[in-house]
Amino acid sequence: MKKTMMSLVLATVMAAPAFAEQPIQLSVPGNNLPDGNVKGFRASLLYGQTPQVTGFQLPILGLAESQNFTGVSVGVFFGANRVTGNSTGLKMGLANWNDGRAKGADLGFANYTGGNFTGLQMGAFNYAGNLDGVQFGFINATDRINKGIQIGLINYDKSGTFVSESVPIFPIINARF
Fold first, then answer.
1. pLDDT, tens digit, 9 for 90 and up, residues 100-130
2. d(C-alpha 106, C-alpha 176), whole Å
């Protein structure tokens, strides 16, 4: 019994760092040094994946991926961001990809949010499932503008434009308030 208890205690102590929040993390393909959620600074070289990031993120030459993100991310040398859950804050990179909801600002060549986007998307191509905010780019697209404005060469709203519900595309400006 005593050996079993010691083994459980030892296993718990050794596993605890894997679940701890890290103040600094370097992500490279297949490894996070150290492993765990980040509350502080994270640099991702080529490709890095971690569950949760709160703070400042620096994707370098590739993709920084997390389940949830809160903070500021600045991609350098073709750095890009992907969040599979929810995102809050500022993301700047070649591409910003949110599978869930996003709040804040996405500034990049291409910005995609599958769920509801609240804030500013600015890039050559912007897409939001639902938009509460501003899209500014050459091509802007959404399934529905809840409250917001699209400013660009081509503005697409699947639910219709301010001109008519049967006209999904309108050039230069489209809005709903």
1. 999 999 999 999 999 999 999 999 999 999 9
2. 21
CA 23 centroid distance within chain: 20
**Residue 130, amino acid:** N
- 8 A C-beta contact, residue 151 and residue 173: yes
Chain length of the chain: 177
Residue 161 backbone dihedrals phi, psi, to 5 degrees: -105, 180
Which pairing describes strands 87-98 and 102-122: parallel, antiparallel, or unpaired? parallel
Query: How confident is residue 162, by pLDDT bands cut at 50, 70 and 90?
Result: confident
Provide the CA 108 distance to its chain's centre, in angstroms.
11
* Cα–Cα distance for residue pair 144/175, rounded to 1 Å: 10
Q: How far apart are CA 18 and CA 76, in angstroms?
A: 28
Q: From CA 147, how far away is CA 104, in angstroms rounded?
A: 15
Nearest CA among 69, 110, 76, 109 for reference residue 90: 69
Separation between Cα atoms, residue 66 and residue 49, nearest integer Å: 6
SS3 label, residue 19 = helix
Give the Å distances, CA to CA, from 136 to 78, 94, 155.
21, 16, 10
Task: Please write the tens of the pLDDT for every residue from 47-83.
Answer: 999 999 999 999 999 999 999 999 999 999 999 999 9
